[in-house]
Each structure stands twice: as C-alpha cells, then as structure tokens.
Backbone:
C-alpha cells in the first residue's frame, strides 16, 4: 500500500449558506489523501500505472466551481468524482477547508473531512 497526498489546492469559490458568501465568495483549500497499490508505477516509471496528480486537480477544480451551501456537500462530490475516475483506490480521504467563515468571532478556518 502506498500513499499519495495532494495538499493545499487553492480555490476562490462561492460556497456558503449565507447570501453574502454566495455573492462575494472566499478562499478554500482542498487536500486529497489517496491509498492505493502503486508498486507497478514504482517499478515501471509509467504514469498510466499511478494516479495522475493533474487529473485529481482537474476533478477537484470542476467540483469547486459548482456552487453549494455546505462544504460537506462539496467534499462528498469531490470524493465521489475521484473514486469514479480511479476505482482501484483502496482508501480516499478529502478535506475541504474554508477560510474566515462568517462567525461571530475570529476563526481562521473550518474544514470538513470525508473518508471512504
């Protein structure tokens, strides 16, 4: 079993429950943690035998561009999209972080993590 982590993908998106968030948008980061058998890629140096990082970024970006009220929903969509593209992934964890959420106080960020 091997691990690939794509960490700190940054997006400006319009996810949020409140109208102001949907209009103004805000900063989000997404981290994807993948466990899969990468031995063949390690032995052959063949990109088609591994999980292509660019593909993961593209799938994540597509989902981040679709507005949602909850980051839980966005996180779930990313998880499902990656799993459908790479069904041989044995374990997948996705974290969506939202910076400076509108709360009555200073909060740097909140995040949701889903795992399958």
Residues:
């Amino acid at each position: 079993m091997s691990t690939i982590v794509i960490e700190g993908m940054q997006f400006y998106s319009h996810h949020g429950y409140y109208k102001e968030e949907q209009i103004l948008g805000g900063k989000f980061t997404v981290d994807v943690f993948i466990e899969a058998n990468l031995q063949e890629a390690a032995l052959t140096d063949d990109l088609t035998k591994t999980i292509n990082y660019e593909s993961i970024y593209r799938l994540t970006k597509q989902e981040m561009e679709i507005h949602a009220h909850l980051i839980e929903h966005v996180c779930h969509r990313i998880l499902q999209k990656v799993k459908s593209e790479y069904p041989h992934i044995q374990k997948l964890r996705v974290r969506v972080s939202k910076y400076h959420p509108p709360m009555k106080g200073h909060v740097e960020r909140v995040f949701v993590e889903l795992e399958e």
Residues 71-85 form the longest helix (15 residues). The beta strands are 2-13, 26-36, 91-99, 109-115. The longest strand covers residues 2-13.
